[in-house]
From TrEMBL, chains A, B:
<keyword id="KW-0274">FAD</keyword>
<dbReference type="InterPro" id="IPR016164">
    <property type="entry name" value="FAD-linked_Oxase-like_C"/>
</dbReference>
<dbReference type="InterPro" id="IPR016169">
    <property type="entry name" value="FAD-bd_PCMH_sub2"/>
</dbReference>
<comment type="similarity">
    <text>Belongs to the FAD-binding oxidoreductase/transferase type 4 family.</text>
</comment>
<dbReference type="Pfam" id="PF01565">
    <property type="entry name" value="FAD_binding_4"/>
</dbReference>
<dbReference type="InterPro" id="IPR004113">
    <property type="entry name" value="FAD-bd_oxidored_4_C"/>
</dbReference>
<feature type="domain" description="FAD-binding PCMH-type">
    <location>
        <begin position="37"/>
        <end position="218"/>
    </location>
</feature>
<dbReference type="InterPro" id="IPR036318">
    <property type="entry name" value="FAD-bd_PCMH-like_sf"/>
</dbReference>
<dbReference type="InterPro" id="IPR051264">
    <property type="entry name" value="FAD-oxidored/transferase_4"/>
</dbReference>
<dbReference type="InterPro" id="IPR006094">
    <property type="entry name" value="Oxid_FAD_bind_N"/>
</dbReference>
<dbReference type="InterPro" id="IPR016166">
    <property type="entry name" value="FAD-bd_PCMH"/>
</dbReference>
<protein>
    <submittedName>
        <fullName>FAD/FMN-containing dehydrogenase</fullName>
    </submittedName>
</protein>
<dbReference type="InterPro" id="IPR016171">
    <property type="entry name" value="Vanillyl_alc_oxidase_C-sub2"/>
</dbReference>
<dbReference type="Pfam" id="PF02913">
    <property type="entry name" value="FAD-oxidase_C"/>
</dbReference>
<keyword id="KW-0285">Flavoprotein</keyword>
């Protein structure tokens, strides 16, 4: 059984930590982007060093008080918010944002967990390197949270998920011991891979305090295009054609539906529309190439072949970096437009690549049997990862459909699960999908997860109720 | 406490499994390539299905009998050999070698654990794809063992280690339950990543029975070159120059020393020597490029620049696939030549890339204080992974130096550890390096590993004594 934060614990923490570690528990720490949860916390601690994190964890472990690790607060599944249970310590990494070292010749950067993604990208850039993790919230998301949730984003196709961009981690385990795993090695087969266990565990097995991140050479030239496609099947064929022609140079391949552009026009009218009359389906292709290849030329060659094959009735190739940025603004603004419209139910799903057309073809009619919705389907086609979000018809609100939410979710998740897909492709489980994990997860996997959680965190202090139901 | 195989267990297994699952325990199952261990086993079981593996594990768990999972038997650290303790069941995956499915449009192949690497490579090739895992033992190593040990090899620089080439696994856990994790997804954030935990656990947390493997597009054109380099520092500079010029197209970047070529001349005289008078240091560069780039031209351009910069006094560029194969034969035959010479002590180490020249510069003099040896240093420079092997002087044998082995090993491992390196870069821990892991491993990591092992395998039946000391 966990205990709430007590005056005695606070006294102990004040004796162990400098005054600066104690911050006001502002309301922002108890909110999350989609407004589905309201948190509670007994105390906000923002340590400045790994030792201070360890001291905090040790004190909480002895007092049996829960800890909610807090990064940039951008998570979409409530992993950073504890709405019920005994009031926890909220441990924010916001003061641990040092970039400890950059090793350009090794393509490695060592960052503390509180470093903001955009700052890491900028530091890599200053060293003439690329840190390829990129997503809409990069201006506020922090490295620790990005690793704890194994964040995805737009460059996974080429560079992998957050876990693929991490060579080593330093972390504080639930007993307060410090895992010193900040190795800068490409190969290290010395025992169980705890790095990969903590990455994606959403703070339930320990708190990542620093990471050795993998940088890449910065592509010499970049370019982008928006191609209209006849439909998802054609988009997949175009993906294959793009890979065959351009190979490893394809950094992103994003699918968008006209609904997304309509939402933008409705809620963010200042954003320039790339097509006067948007097609039903389109893809955003981004390239990063070496010195010898011209991206615009590569995209023109691709368009000619795709057009001839009936895969691209229309297309726009960015003629400047400004135009490339415009294309990306469209893509990256869709989540905000969605939030302004107000989704009834959002689904971050993945299916095997070849199942995407069937999923899209079956999703719409299945939902139509439940009610009359608008669907905005967009996402990382190259990764088989779609954001399949369901909205009210114009003139109605989310509240009008609230009673249909469970049926919508079950409809989509059953379909995804039946196709061998995932009900959380990149956002994680948090608290939002604990039930879904129980419903769709492999029983042997769940049993092993519970055994590992009990072994490493027997009292259950680390992010109680996230990923796995809180015990006791 | 474990029990040896009993007649009762054998009766139970014979009732549960078909006759074909029982094979003769031939001596080959009790030997390993370097001849350091002799195994023992009570029974050899070769199941044909995952259910049969599960039935075997359940019976052994109830009887508290150890299981040694057996793949191709090519491991170099004794992970497949149990020299002491109660006689275990040896569970060979040799009859589970089906390739269950190939999905070319998804770049995925699903193979059973007993599939031989060369067969998987060939199946990928037949689908016009590449399965990039490649190492000297690929004609006998099996997928299950390659994943259990997170095998490396020559293409890690471009494509990653075995774990990076696996999207999902099916495995039998120590309680006999089946983990159904054969997902073909690029993104799946639904709970702890048990795939990465089992990969590299060397059969101590469960038995991998099948895997969804990641294929790559087959490079349109390949090429190779051997460049003489003035030394390790220049080799690193050449690696950076190669990356800057050729980018993602660099598939392998292997360092070799003249000693390796001398060993080849001495023990395998039929292998053609690429240089009449081999330089002290040389690198083998392998490229896989798209249709638009000519590998020989790219290598010639590289040579001109490298030569002008003093990084490549001499060089050979393969003028045909036959010549490329000759270069690779040289590289891939070095381990066999080493075995024929007979190493006193072999070290599969990695250090941060920028520390390689210092490691090599300091290793020789440090060893010279212990005795008079020949050193063959070669390996995967691009990964910071060297095979640093110590040999007798001509006319002497390994036995003459046996008493110096512990001092040699400590000397090298202390040096590596002090540089933030790994004492097992790609071969794993097995039984050979259990002591080393205890000596050099992070204490918090070891404690967490032991807790996880106890949680998932409380009786300790899975590969007892590998990676972690056997309990009891």
């Amino acid at each position: 059984m966990l205990s709430p934060v007590t005056p005695e614990l606070e006294r102990r923490l004040r004796a162990a930590l400098p005054e600066a570690a104690f911050r006001d528990l502002a309301p922002a720490y108890l909110e999350e982007p989609r407004g589905r949860y309201t948190g509670q916390g007994g105390l906000l601690i923002a340590p400045e060093t790994t030792d201070q994190v360890a001291a905090t964890v040790r004190a909480c472990a002895e007092a049996r008080v829960g800890i909610v690790p807090y990064g940039g607060g951008t998570g979409l599944v409530g992993g950073q918010i504890m709405p019920d249970g005994p009031a926890p310590v909220i441990l924010s990494l916001e003061r641990m944002r040092k970039l400890r070292a950059v090793y350009p010749s090794e393509n490695v950067l060592v960052a503390e967990a509180g470093a903001i993604l955009a700052d890491v990208q900028a530091a890599a850039d200053a060293a003439d390197r690329l840190f390829p993790l990129s997503l809409a919230s990069e201006g506020s998301a922090r490295i620790g949270g990005l690793l704890a949730t194994n964040a995805g984003g737009v460059n996974v196709l080429r560079y992998g998920n957050a876990r693929d961009l991490c060579l080593g981690i330093e972390a504080v385990l639930p007993d307060g011991s410090v895992l010193n795993g900040l190795k800068r090695l490409r190969k290290d087969n010395t025992g169980y891979d705890l790095r990969h266990l903590l990455i994606g565990a959403e703070g339930t097995l320990g708190i990542i305090t620093a990471a050795a991140l993998k940088l890449s050479p910065r592509p010499a030239q970049t370019g982008a295009a928006l191609f209209a496609v006849p439909g998802p099947e054609a988009a997949l064929d175009l993906l294959a054609m793009t890979g065959a022609r351009i190979g490893d140079g394809v950094s992103a391949f994003e699918l968008m539906h006209r609904t997304g552009l309509d939402f933008l026009a409705e809620t963010l009218p200042d954003i320039r529309r790339p097509f006067d009359d948007p097609p039903d389906w389109m893809v955003l292709i981004d390239l990063g190439l070496g010195v010898a290849q011209d991206p615009a030329e590569a995209l023109e060659g691709l368009f000619v072949e795709a057009h001839a094959a009936g895969l691209a009735p229309d297309g726009l190739i960015a003629q400047s970096q400004a135009q490339r940025a415009e294309f990306w603004t469209v893509r990256e603004s869709i989540p905000l437009a969605n939030r302004r419209i107000g989704a009834i139910s959002s689904h971050d799903i993945s299916v095997p690549l070849s199942a995407i057309p069937a999923f899209i073809a079956r999703g719409g009619p299945a939902l139509a049997e439940i009610g009359d919705f608008r669907i905005n389907c967009f996402g990382h086609l190259g990764d088989g990862n779609l954001h399949y979000n369901v909205f009210p018809q114009p003139g109605k609100t989310r509240a009008d459909y609230e009673h249909l939410r469970p049926a919508i979710k079950t409809c989509i998740y059953d379909l995804v699960h039946g196709m061998g897909g995932s009900v959380s492709a990149e956002h994680g489980v948090g608290r939002l999908k604990v039930d879904d994990l129980e419903r769709y997860g492999d029983p042997a996997k769940l049993a092993a997860m519970r055994a590992i959680k009990a072994a490493l965190d027997p009292v259950g202090i680390m992010n109680p109720g996230a990923v796995l139901r809180a015990s006791g």
